[in-house]
TrEMBL record:
Annotated family: Belongs to the glycosyl hydrolase 3 family.
Gene Ontology molecular function terms on file: beta-glucosidase activity
The entry's keywords: Glycosidase, Hydrolase, Signal
GO biological process, one term: glucan catabolic process
PANTHER family: BETA-XYLOSIDASE, PERIPLASMIC BETA-GLUCOSIDASE-RELATED
One Pfam family recorded for the sequence: Fn3-like
Segments forming domain Fibronectin type III-like: 701-770
Signal peptide positions (record): 1-19
Keyword Transcription attributed: no
Protein name as catalogued: Beta-glucosidase
Amino acid sequence: MKRILISTMACCMALSLSAAKKKAKELLPYQNPKLSVEQRVNDLVSRMTLQEKVGQLRCTLAWNYYTIKGKNVEPSELFKKDIAEGQIGMLWGTYRADPWTQKSLENGLNPELAAKAGNALQKYVIEHTRLGIPLFLAEEAPHGHMAIGTTVFPTGFGMAATWNPALIEKTGEVIGQEIRLQGGHISYGPVLDLAREPRWSRVEETMGEDPVLAGELGAAMVKGLGGGILSKPYSTIATLKHFIGYGTTEAGQNGGITIAGARELQESFLPPFKKAINAGALSVMTSYNSLDGIPSTCSKALLTDLLRTQWGFNGFVVSDLYSIDGIHGTHRVAETKQQAGVMALKAGVDADLGALAFGRLEDAVQKGMVTEAEIDVAVKRILKMKFEMGLFEHPYVDAAQAKQLVRSDNNKAVALQVAREIITLLKNQNHVLPLSKTQKVLVCGPNADNVYNMLGDYTAPQEEGNVKTILAGIRSKLPASQVTYVKGCAVRDTTASNIAEAVAAAKQADVVVVAVGGSSARDFKTSYKETGAAVTDSKTISDMDCGEGFDRATLTPLGHQMQLLKALKAIGKPLVVVYIEGRPMDKSWAAQHADALLTAYYPGQEGGTAIADVLFGDYNPAGRLPVSVPANVGQIPVYYNKKPPMPHDYVEMSARPLYAFGYGLSYTTFKYDDLNIEETGDTQFKVTFNVTNTGDMDGDEVVQLYLHDEFASTAQPMMQLKKFSRIFIPKGETKQVSFTLEAEDLEIVDQEMNHVVETGDFTVMIGPSSDNIILKATFTQN
């Protein structure tokens, strides 16, 4: 009897274990990858508590969420606490390193450790929360992933100077790959604010002043980042910044008010965003500014009526850092942060970057300020993308792959090509460039050998040797005996100049290359706001004159830079001036007195090599200005596509910019001819013409097509870029260029705010820049 009892008990235990295993293998509907995304989302949301739902809408600052222990990374106690208390579903800046975060090469994450950190955080959330919902990791990526050990590209302002969408798409592919290899999912960028205010501190992040150029390049970047197909292994959720009108704030004040009419928004500011959304962007970030008294972060007209209803946007909207809080604290249109959070949610914001205001939504539901159903709408938008990206099945990444592939030789080669293509030659008197490799060269100036001044804002600390400075680039071309270096002065600091030493060295040289301009290099002396924007401080001597928070009242180079330039000019040696800059700075003196002048913007980690390639003729420059360069700050705003009447001259000076939008020189010359316009369909016209390289060097030409609607029901720009192409043409050869103008190219916004094509005459203008139109013809739209 005893044996029978034991046997029965053993059998029951076996059956019980078998049943338990079977039950463990039975997936809940949201865990079943065979079901549709919609089914999985609905099932998951039906199981979530209000706290869990709100947690998915909160994006917290995450660089203190990990602890490095030797070769391993573990979740920090702060992370565990925030997960337990808030059920957080999205993190920002987990891998970020810079003076604001106090993360450096010594205590930050390299790519291998970053991947391990992401895995550790995902594992903790999956194993220690009730439903095991994986995290979204959002990372800054305007010109490369802002993390240690990644590839640093030129800033957006520079990338726009390539006028090369195909190359920018390759850049996006590299950025997306490096983010995903390390366990990130959301890339903040591209920045599509129009740069019509050069005093503004964030011009460097934009893709210029023109809606067509910015739209085409922004769309190309989005395509490179995956084009919204989240099932691709390296696809990220591209987040467009900043919605809307943030780059045209009054007086160039970062976050200030924007004055723009509804038609101007439709004609200029919104099209780049729409183009990028059509290319697959799945996230849009609000901006800090207000328009017509309405903070962008609580504008239902923008975030719901326009973005979702009119455009059909099916992604999610995220606030800029603490911009929801700013509805209360800055703009003063909400009496409490809780009310601000409710206003933002109802307007169409789905995720709170900073997570403070949305942290009060649970209580707001209890008070009847917002319904749980309204929260469900936002939650579903975010969860949908977590499922589409496959995070529930594949939440982890391979740390060994991250170590091997992030900043690979291929990725650095792409960065070098972008750096070459951005360089814009503005003056080359008596063909002083390219330089001979037999000449003795003095290299000087504050930006000649400063690693961080090459990179721009939103850049992580760099290992020694990764960034090529101008001095390093020139030294790679010449024997050491032919190169002398004297700094001369700093960007801003006037206490450490050695101009006399630079002058003495110039007398011994055959040619002087001086690198001036600005800097967005953050340092550990600078103070920062809670949003990460730098705080100007007269007591702190820093090189930083640009980058978020560093708005300028003037555009002239600061410190002793003008004294250095004038002292070097007085020597009488050929003077080559290189501007490293985050905005179009005042170049009036250099335009008049330098023998050669070029801008390299912030050219990124390979910038020094690229600049040296151009200086010595190993690469023929073809960068084109993505903005107009003012001759004087009093001309601002000075963008090219103004509506009539055209600006008239001032008492003191011309109203024309110093350098026009689209301008840039080459070491060779080009001829344009044989323009033909043919109507090929209903509201479709084919424009063809020939371009011949008439010089002695192979080179790229950037051909630009502008259009003017001669008479319309609303005032139209005197010229508006519609098509462009960067074309390589060997010396002596001719290439036929063909553009097709479609209905969208002829559209205007009429008096009733409708997008329409009106009948009438249109003038086509073709040339190498907006102020150098070589071919012109008119066609009629019937």
